[in-house]
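Give me the 3D structure for TRASH domain protein.
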Amino acid sequence: MGKLRSSISGGDKLVCENCGVELTPERIYVHEINGIKHYFCCEHCAHEFERKLRTVH
Ligand SMILES: [Zn+2]
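Predicted structure for TRASH domain protein (57 residues):
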């Protein structure tokens, strides 16, 4: 007990790349940015994430 478990290598679990909420096949918003698909919980998060990417440069 108390040790860290490496649950990252599980695989299938997707989370919103903007807010980190867990995504299900029924509730998923896929948005392609620069040819790469990103997964979000809603359109709002997709636009928020894209805006953050653009602000970097
Ligand atoms: Zn989200």
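The helical segments are 43-56. Let me know if you want a second pass.
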